[in-house]
Amino acid sequence: MFCRIFIYTHRRMAITADDVSLEDIVPISLDFAVVEVSSPEELVVVGADTRVRISFKDQELELRLPFGSHSRVFLGEVNKAWSDVCRSPTQAPTFEWISKYHKGTRGQGVVKQAIAPLGTTLTKLSQHRKTEKSSDKKGTLEKEKGSNSGTQKSRGFSSQESREERDDLVRSSSHTPSNKAQILAMPQFGLRDNLIRCELLKNEDLYTYLEHFSFFLGTYNVNGQTPKESLRPWLGCTLNPPDIYCVGFQELDLSKEAFFFNDTPKEQEWTKAVFEALHPEAKYAFVKLVRLVGIMLIFYVKKEHAEFISDVETETVGTGIMGRMGNKGAVAIRFRFHNSDICVVNSHLAAHIEEYERRNQDYKDICSRLQFRQNDPTQPPLTIMKHNVILWIGDLNYRITDLDVDKVKELISKKDFETLHSYDQLKKQIDEEAVFEGFEEGEIDFQPTYKYDTGSDKWDTSEKCRVPAWCDRILWRGKNIDQKHYQSHMALKTSDHKPVSSLLVIGIKRVNGDAYKKTFEEIVRNIDKMENECIPSVTLSKREFHFEDVKFMQHQAETLSLFNDGQVPCQFEFIQKPNEPTYCKPWLTANPSKGFIAQGGSADIELEVFVNRSTAPELNSGTQQIEDILVLHLERGKDYFISVTGNYLPSCYGTSLHSLCQLREPIQDMPQETLRELAEMSGTENAANTEKPLDIPKELWMMVDHLFRNAIKQEDIFQQPGLRSEFAEIRDCLDTGMPDSLPGSNHSVAEALLLFLDALPEPVVPYSFYQQCLECCSNASQCEKIVSMLPQCHKNVFNYLAAFLRELLKNSASNRLDVSILVTIFASLLLRSSTKQDLAEKRKTQEFFQHFLTQGSS
After folding, report:
1. Do 197 and 47 touch, CB atoms closer than 8 A?
2. Which phi-psi region, left, alpha or beta, contains residue 104 (left: φ > 0; alpha: ψ -120 to 50)?
3. Which residues are 473's β-sheet partners?
4. Kind and range of the H or E run holding 607
5. Strands (E), 653-796
6. Pairing assessment for the beta strands 639-648 and 544-550 based on DSSP bridges
7. CA-to-CA distance for 822 and 809, rounded, in angstroms?
8. Angle, CA of 150, 156 and 161, to the nearest 5°
9. Which regions of 265-357 does DSSP assign to beta strands (E)?
10. What stretch of H or E contains 646?
11. How far is CA 406 from the centre of its chain?
């Protein structure tokens, strides 16, 4: 692989490709060199900018790299690429194609700002002509290439033609920071940014001051509709134009295609509607859009503030069925504005009035699973709560309870929102500290935003006659936040919800340059003194951890506390042991796995054990144990060894169909040696055991039979998730045989069935048959023939499940299922690939399985 350095310039913050221009392309070849040219005065100050000179043939560029990890990563990658070229000099390319971009000359001595996040200052130093000898050599080289007419006298661009060529190149490129960059091997670039960053954070008050900016937050559940009216009454309702817009949508598209993660044309339609409705008295720059199925968040900023937006990252989390489907969940954008870190979350939580516990669980899942990658790859991911300001919007779906619909409407007609709010589920859950701890919500003095007849202001007149509720909410967490308004917008009638908006004025931290420099230099001086005098050390709260009765998909955690008892700040990291790919076994995690502790400070590390479908099979069979040794390494200090042990309770989850068919007793009643023997001979039909095996696993029968008797007409079965606490009860019942009948709701049993199929080490259609299934997916009789060839227990399970799903489809008027939903959910579980499936393969597996669900299948 041959590498090049692409150098871009921009006039303001680079938000889209149109904001940057390709300035130059520098090939990394045998003619390439990079040297540090920092002055002796600069080298004395650790953390000062680093100046390097990059040269290639007749070109020299000086880059001033700012202190920090981005510079280290950049130089590390350059050094790595150059080393690769040196190892294979005969394969070095000639880069003839670059010459077409070198037309005209660039002005001398122009200082330009490069694209964020590097923020390098680029200065053209010289445009040396080669000597006559060099020119002869170049001419020979061109002759060897053939008739190369490209002139290489000049390295600049100035013509309009070349500008257009470069812009095209920028638009067609995708730029993503590497998340695999290694710490730079060159000692002169070993910047101590972690240490200094921590001290700067502690002393932030010395060099920052507050400036107030207005944030417009909007949320709208559009019920799958297209924009039918201007959004200006909602988005343009403020007297003065806001500095920042964060606009969230839910149920952008309710089609089955969108439910299963496909693109939707409605994204563009609603994005256009938002842009056209922004406050007319200001110009706004589009920063970011993120979408998960029908949950979308759009971020705009006033153009004059755009250059102060940095570190923009997006993430999504689905909390639908099996914790994966994206019909419910959250999308989020985090960014730095001046010196404040801000996270905006748009979520759509579980529906139905009685499902407040499921909504609580969704909230907790979003908080724990939604993590942002940092620009510095050596730093652990950022969670939502690790931001100065958190803004949370969305259809949170909490309802009004303990009042009948007539009483609710009576209180609304009296505008007695205070009394009505006391019956609000979200208020009750916040008061009980079950969710949104530390968040604030403004006073609600507007009528509930759900549910209306579409196109009107009339309450729901459908058969269900929903009780009005404040489903659509806006909350915040952080300091120096003042809410100026919190209201709904009755003028918009497109949806069965009304949009909601809030205007927040937030104190944002800005940096005083002189004070920052003074603080920075003082920190560097102190660190120099400490590093020269002392070696880091820590005290550990304990070195042995034991996890009792570990179960499938049941999180356990213990806290390891580190106290810095040394004379200097220290940096710690869990490191790999020899011949092991990671620092710990796959069922174990240390969070954080690396970090920094100030002198006299402490850090808590959560040692978390979680057994999932990939780790359960070997633990079930006893070929792996809950045993590991962690190596905690201190930079410039010693290593500490931490023992992790535990006992795992075997589960039907992660055990093969063949083994389960051999077990007539609950799996936790069986000796470990028996389970090991069954796992070793799982591929054979019958082992030494003369007793006839079960036709299908009893655990599978219990779940399907429960659903057949209780949930055949259950609305949204296999589409609405269950409760995690109920899944734990169902798993324990299947693994221990107690109680005799399955506990939990129908939705929890349905999800438990899907998780059972997902956790099978060998899917219902074994991996060895997968390719044949793809090849004959369009031929129903060939598909049936393949199923008839499956191992007996696999064939029985396949036919049993298909028959059950056909019964469900007979009741589709009640349960709202159709063939496409069931095929999409179950095909991915029954016909799994041993490698990652592409979209074409997924469609073929669905086509294969659909033959067994359509009318007339036997």
Report:
1. no
2. left
3. 394
4. strand 602-609
5. none
6. parallel
7. 9
8. 75
9. 284-292, 295-302, 309-318, 329-337, 340-348
10. strand 639-648
11. 43
Q: Is 720 exposed, middle or buried (0-12, 13-18, 19+ CB in 10 A)?
A: buried
DSSP per-residue codes, 430-477 = HHTTSS-TT-B-----S---B-B-TTSSPBP-STT-PPPB--EEEEEE
Which residues contact residue 255 at a Cβ distance below 8 angstroms, ignoring those fewer than 6 apart?
A: 224, 264
Read out DSSP for 524-587?
Answer: HHHHHHHHHH----EEES-SEEEEEEE-BT--EEEEEEEEE-SSS-EEEEEEPPTT-SSSS-TT
Closest by Cα among 267, 33, 259 to 822: 259
Write out residues in the chain with pLDDT < 50, as ranges: 11-16, 44-47, 103-191, 261, 685, 687, 858
3-class secondary structure, 756? helix
89: which DSSP letter? Answer: G
- Please tell me the predicted confidence (pLDDT) of residue 839: 83
CA 765 to chain centre: 31
The whole-model pTM stands at: 0.73
Residues β-bridged to residue 476? 391, 440
Dist CA 369 CA 375 (whole Å): 19
Q: What is the CA radius of gyration of the chain?
A: 31
Q: What is the largest CA-CA distance in the chain?
A: 96
State which amino acid sits at residue 722: G
User: What is the percentage of the chain residues whose pLDDT exceeds 70?
Assistant: 81
Residue 692, number of CB atoms within 10 A of its CB = 9
3-state secondary structure 785-810: HHHHCCCHHHHHHHHHHHHHHHHHHC
Query: What is the enclosing helix (H) or strand (E) of 605?
Result: strand 602-609
Q: Which one-letter DSSP state was computed for residue 613?
A: T
Question: What are 549's two structure tokens?
Answer: 């009765």
DSSP bridge pairs for 644: 545, 628
Task: Evaluate whether 234 touches 492 at the Cβ level (below 8 Å).
Answer: yes
The structure tokens listed for 577 are 């042991």
The partner residues of 606 in beta bridges, in order of sequence, read 559, 591
Nearest to 527 by CA among 571, 588, 479, 478: 571
Assign 148 to helix, strand or coil. coil
Residue 501, classed as helix, strand or coil, is strand
- The token pair at 573 is 């990291």
pLDDT for residue 41: 59
Residue 550, phi then psi, degrees to nearest 5: -70, 135
Whether residue 243 contacts residue 272, with contact meaning beta carbons closer than 8 Å, is answered with no
Instruction: Please report the pLDDT score of residue 461 as a whole number.
Output: 92
Q: What is the dihedral of CA 766, 772, 775, 781, to 10 degrees?
A: -100
Residue closest to 550 by CA, chosen among 619, 643, 623, 629: 619
Say which residues have a Cβ less than 8 Å from residue 529's Cβ, sequence separation at least 6. Answer: none
Amino acid at residue number 724: R
Instruction: State the residue for tokens 């559009």.
Output: 222
Confidence at residue 50, expressed as pLDDT on a 0 to 100 scale: 73
pLDDT at 418: 96
CA distance 415 to 536: 64
Chain mean position to CA 90: 42
What are the structural domains, with CATH classification, of the chain? 4-92 (2.30.29.110), 204-513 (3.60.10.10), 538-648 (2.60.40.10), 693-854 (1.10.555.10)
CA distance 642 to 649: 23
Spatial separation of the C-alpha atoms in residues 658 and 792, rounded to whole Å: 9
Query: β-pairing, 570-575 with 472-477?
Result: unpaired
The amino acid at 98? I
The full length of the chain comes to 858
Per-residue exposure over 618-657, b if at least 16 CB sit within 10 Å of its own CB, e if not: bbbbbebebebebbbbbeebeebebebebebbbbbbbbbb
Both tokens assigned to 653: 């989850």
Distance CA 358, CA 736 (A): 26
Q: Rounded CA gap, 726 and 482, in Å? A: 41
